[in-house]
Amino acid sequence: MTGPAGRHVTFGEADMTEHLNRLGRTAPDLYACVDPARARAWARLAEAGDFKDDFGADGAGGRGSSYIRAQGRNLAARAQGIHHLLSLVPARTDRRPAVVVDVLGGDGLVRRVADARGLTGLSVLTCDASPYMVGAAWAAHCPALVQRADRLLLRDGSVDAVLVAYGSHHIAAEDRAELAHEAYRVLRPGGVLLLHDFLVGSPMETWFQDVVDPYSRTGHAFDHFSREEMWGYLTKAGFESGEVTEMADPYVATAATAGEAELELGRYLLDMYGLAAIKRRHPADAARRTVELAKTIFRDRRADGSLEAFSAAYDPSARTWTCTLPRTAVLAIGRKTS
Predict the structure, then answer these.
(1) Pick from 142, 227, 191: which is nearest to 334 by CA?
(2) Is residue 5 in a domain?
(3) 6 lies in some domain
(4) What CATH number is associated with residue 219?
(5) 83-87: long-range contacts, CB 8 A cutoff, minimum separation 24
(6) Is residue 2 part of a domain?
(7) Do residues 165 and 109 touch, judged by C-beta distance below 8 A?
(8) Of the candidates 87, 131, 141, 84, which has an alpha carbon nearest to the alpha carbon of residue 109?
(9) Is residue 189 part of a domain?
(10) Please, which residues have CB within 8 angstroms of residue 83's CB and are 6 or more apart in sequence?
(11) For a tag on the chain, would you pick the N or C end, based on fewer CB atoms within 10 A?
């Protein structure tokens, strides 16, 4: 596979075999869901193909290093939304942990949030198309596998939930229907597909177009979703029931003072999206400029017509301030019943 700067990304059949062996030793329940022949066959094709890895190492032209740094400095930044998504995973009737395939798992953020919040009854397999991200997930003690979202390397009817979140717009429009079909294939009866993103015309799309695309080292020209598009994927894939709804998914940061919490949000967004051009142009106050940009963009209209905007709240028991940037995500839930 070839990285964004033309550098070879060393990942192929031998690497997949190593990942599978490690997964078998570390998480036998997750390994049992994988189809090894399917995995090795895909790895042979991937090794011979051309892959632009936006989430490779910063030094290789990606923004993966800064992304990992952002999660390390503020694990709770997106924890509210992640917690809600995981709450929708159905419990198994045999009391075994529900297997969740985190398709766009990056460095294992979803699993780490689940552990930090004490969410039990879940066994999360972190997956990503980026070998660099999967390596980072293993380094964070998260069982992980390299795979594409539209070509799942799992057995038919083997998992309880397929989570596609925090980057679904990176999946090319022509591959999204196949993603839904693949999710249906690998789900057990009673399982769910959770497809999460942000709507066309939403503040999040504005953020990507006006800030991330011009200021990130990798750019960010991707198509977001409509409700009708998401519903079409569910019905065409064969899901027997489902819905398309919205959910709160804010960014948060906490510190001893309101000013420091606000700056922490700015630092998080700088690293999260690899806004290298802002850092170069404003080295002394890049975090301040970033959060001020975000405050002008993340303004959501509530159902009653009022405006939800940036806020700061003091917790006297913890003696800390929490600053919040509101975001509203769209969520398609597909349920497999047969």
Answers:
(1) 191
(2) no
(3) no
(4) 3.40.50.150
(5) 83/113, 83/117, 83/119, 84/247, 84/248, 84/249, 85/110, 85/163, 85/165, 85/194, 85/196, 85/247, 85/331, 86/110, 86/114, 86/119, 86/122, 86/163
(6) no
(7) no
(8) 141
(9) yes
(10) 113, 117, 119
(11) C
- Alpha-carbon gap, residue 133 to 67, rounded angstroms: 10
Q: Name the strand (E) or helix (H) holding 321.
A: strand 320-325
Are 24 and 55 found together in one domain?
Answer: yes
- Tens digit of each residue's pLDDT (9 = 90 or more) over 169-217: 999 999 999 999 999 999 999 999 999 999 999 999 999 999 999 999 8
Q: What's CA 193's distance to the chain center, in Å?
A: 14
- In whole angstroms, give the CA distance from residue 44 to residue 25: 23
Q: Are strands 241-248 and 320-325 parallel, antiparallel or unpaired?
A: unpaired
Secondary structure (3-state) at 275: coil
Same domain, 185 and 90: yes
Question: What are the distances in angstroms from CA 222 to CA 10, 170, 285?
Answer: 26, 6, 29
Q: How many domains does the chain have?
A: 2
Residue appearing with tokens 């930090």: 116
- Judgement on whether residues 243 and 299 belong to the same structural domain of the protein: no
17 in the same domain as 154: yes
Per residue, the 3-state secondary structure of 162-188, as one string, reads EEECCCHHHCCHHHHHHHHHHHHHHEE
Residue pair 188/157 in contact (Cβ under 8 Å)? The answer is: yes
* Lowest-pLDDT range of 52-66, 180-194, 223-237: 52-66
Question: Domain of 277?
Answer: 251-325
Tokens 């209209």, located at residue: 301
Count Cα atoms within 13 angstroms, Cβ side, for 71.
Answer: 21
CA 322/CA 338 separation, integer angstroms: 45
